[in-house]
Q: What sequence folds into this?
């Protein structure tokens, strides 16, 4: 009886979150899949067209260019994010005077709106007044300002830099929570056993 009551209590606590996911995640996803098989536009209407939309997409060279960009972007960004998240988490998990300040500075981009951060990075990468071009020219790395998003290589690099800045804070917080969940007795036991700092991180 008590187990059944606890189960219903747990479901009651989960109900708001499940309702939110159902309404704002699952239903839009199902609807999106449905309209991908129709000719529906932003103005509504449309009729069933089957796989015509997919055939047009797969036959468009811009689709494959975007697909290749996404694969390359993911292949480079994922390991870089993992390393940065872990490094920052290890750095800020310690009791240092600047721990809270560092966490705040790293996490701040996460709460900045996408429109604001897009404008910020557009300005930083601007050919004429962008700080990146000015710094690279002043250091002698570039002879003249670069149009970052004109070429695929520099465009991908610019996108990855801005995304790293935007999302690294959220991953850091998750890893900090995981590190701090490890009991001090486990860490002390590892030190007594002679485990180095790198071994403690790996194990």
A:
């Amino acid at each position: 009886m008590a187990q059944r009551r606890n189960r219903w209590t747990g479901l009651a606590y989960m109900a708001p979150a499940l309702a939110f996911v159902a309404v704002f995640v699952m239903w839009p996803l199902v609807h999106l899949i449905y309209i991908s098989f129709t000719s529906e536009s932003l103005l509504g209407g449309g009729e069933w067209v089957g796989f015509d939309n997919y055939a047009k997409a797969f036959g468009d060279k811009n689709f494959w260019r975007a697909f290749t960009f996404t694969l390359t972007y993911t292949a480079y960004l994922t390991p870089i994010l993992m390393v940065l998240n872990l490094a920052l988490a290890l750095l800020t998990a310690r009791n240092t005077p600047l721990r809270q300040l560092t966490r705040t500075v790293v996490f701040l981009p996460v709460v900045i709106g996408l429109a604001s951060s897009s404008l910020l990075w557009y300005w930083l990468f601007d050919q004429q007044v962008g700080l990146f071009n000015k710094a690279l020219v002043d250091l002698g790395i570039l002879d003249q300002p670069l149009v970052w998003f004109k070429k695929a290589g520099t465009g991908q690099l610019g996108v990855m830099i801005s995304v790293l800045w935007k999302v690294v804070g959220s991953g850091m917080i998750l890893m900090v929570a995981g590190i701090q969940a490890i009991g001090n007795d486990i860490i002390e036991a590892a030190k007594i056993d002679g485990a180095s700092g790198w071994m403690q991180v790996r194990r």
